[in-house]
Amino acid sequence: MLNSLSDLARQSLAALRVLLVLTVVLGIAYPVVVWGVAQPLGDRAAGQPVRVDGQVVGSRLIGQSFEGQEWFHSRPSANDHDTLASAPSNLGPLNEDLLATIDERRSTVAATESVPEADVPADAVTASGSGLDPHISPAYAGLQVDRVARARGLDAERVRELVEAHTEGRFLGIHGEPVVNVLELNVALDRASR
């Protein structure tokens, strides 16, 4: 019995030493090294905040909702752009609730933009997987140009130029589709309206 107690004590001390070493290495040293390596990247390591007059108005990487006729609208979000609840709806493509939601969104966008429902692009009615996508397609941005120009009292061609200036091409020229960052476009739109 004495041997088993001393063995147990020895094993417990070894486990405690491993716990302490791993806590220091993985809980302190590793995060400090990652933080240190990221510092030269500046804002890229801080979530790429977008600033207006020195104030952070959002992140280039996280979508947010814009209400009102004077703004370009983001794509729908299954979680109302809540970063703590980042997730899709998990409804399958044949789910009746999802199809009804998409039909309702399509009707709303068509009425808001004064276009036929057939002209409403897919990203105007479907949420991204994370619910936090900061981008819309150039087609959806183009669909909104006339409404935004009218609401802002700007020439539609000037607003169209802003959309083109904020359209990002395919990654490395081959991956993905061209996109428009809604927050950055709305910030530029606000500056052009002053």
Quick structural gist:
This protein is mainly alpha-helical and 194 residues long. The chain contains five helices and five strands; from the N terminus they run H-E-E-H-E-H-H-E-E-H. It has two domains: 42 residues; 146 residues, no CATH class.
Please, could you describe this protein's structure?
- It is a single chain.
- This protein has 2 domains: 2-43; 48-193, no CATH class.
- It is 47% helix and 8% strand.
- It has helices spanning 2-38, 96-113, 138-152, 156-165, 182-193; strands at 49-52, 55-59, 135-136, 167-168, 179-181.
- A 3-stranded antiparallel sheet has the order 3-5-4.
- The longest helix is centred in the N-terminal third of the chain and has 37 residues, at 2-38.
- The protein is elongated and about 85 Å long.
- It starts with a helix and ends with a helix.
Summarize the helices and strands and which ones pair or pack.
Elements: H1 2-38, E1 49-52, E2 55-59, H2 96-113, E3 135-136, H3 138-152, H4 156-165, E4 167-168, E5 179-181, H5 182-193
Antiparallel strand pairs: 1-2, 3-5, 4-5
Helix pairs in contact: 3-4
